[in-house]
Each structure stands twice: as structure tokens, then as C-alpha cells.
Description:
The protein has helices at 27-37, 42-67, 70-78, 86-89, 108-114, 134-141, 146-151; strands at 6-15, 20-21, 118-119, 164-174, 179-188.
Amino acid sequence: RSAEELGGLDIAVANVSGKVDLNGATPDLVAALIRGVAPEARAAVRSLLRLREAAQNAKDQAQTQQNQTPQAQAGQLQAGQVRQSQESRETPAFRSAVELARVPGVGRALFETLLPMVTTHTGSPGLNVQVAATATLLAVTGARSRAEAERANAAFFLAQAPGRVFLIRGEAVTRTGARVAREAVVEFTPG
């Protein structure tokens, strides 16, 4: 598109390693985050962890099937078992943080509170303290201030990401008001 057609262009870059990964974070970190913002949301914690467990079980089952000999696979197919497609084998519990809204027990208020604190892009079991939002640190540690959260013995929850993961979002708006947006995840690893 030419510059004349564009009404505006916004580009945002955010380091998401300071967020809790819905797929990769430890169950204890996920539970601490949700309980830290909504202590009464035990059902949401259980539902979210069940979804993750079901996705992992499906992935493990697919991996087991993939490692079988062709003869064993053929025998299973003859017995009426259907092999999953490659796409469904590798599908994580959450493809986007917005999918958190579909978790039973996560109401609108809890969803809106958690959304800026979570991601699906890092795969990290912890979160990067250096870039985590204060609200996220307070929620997972139970501390009253950022300084207290950083001093807390929270190594159980907090970890340095192996690299830096950035979400890059670009949005163009034409003069007529039409919008086009694209996102990309970029990971920089040391060495």
C-alpha cells in the first residue's frame, strides 16, 4: 500500500517473558497467579490445569503412536482406532491468551484482570522478574510491593527466560477507517 492510502500506522513491541505462559508455566505458578488476583477462583485453577493436562496427554499419546512401528500402527487402524492429524497432535491447550475466556470458572472480571498478565508465546515454566509487571509479581508472590516481591524467596515461581521473547504488533488504519493488524513473535536466544 502506498503512504497516501494509509491513515496511520502503529507498531508496538512488548517483551512477553514477564508474563505467565498458559501452556508452559508450572502448575504452581498458574495457580499462584489466579489465586493472587482472585482467591475464590479455585474452580478456574482446576479447569485451566485440566485443559493443559488433556492437551499434554493428547500430545503424549500422539508421540507414542508416532514411535510405533508401521505394522503396529496398521494393526491399530484395523482395530478401528483413528490416527490424529499432525495439527491436532501439536495443538497446545491455548493458542492465544484470549482463549482463557473459555475456561470454566473464568468470568469476565477475572479474564480482564488476567489477560495482561498471561501469554502463550514463551513456553517458559517461570517468568522474567526484570520485565514482569508489578501487578503480576504481586499476584504470584503475595507481596505488597514490587521491592518485597523481588526480595521474596520466589525462585519457585520466577525464572530467567532462556532468551527474550517479544510480541511485535503492527496495525494500519486507512483513511476510510479500515484496519489491518498483524502480530509476530520473535525470540532472541543467547549465543
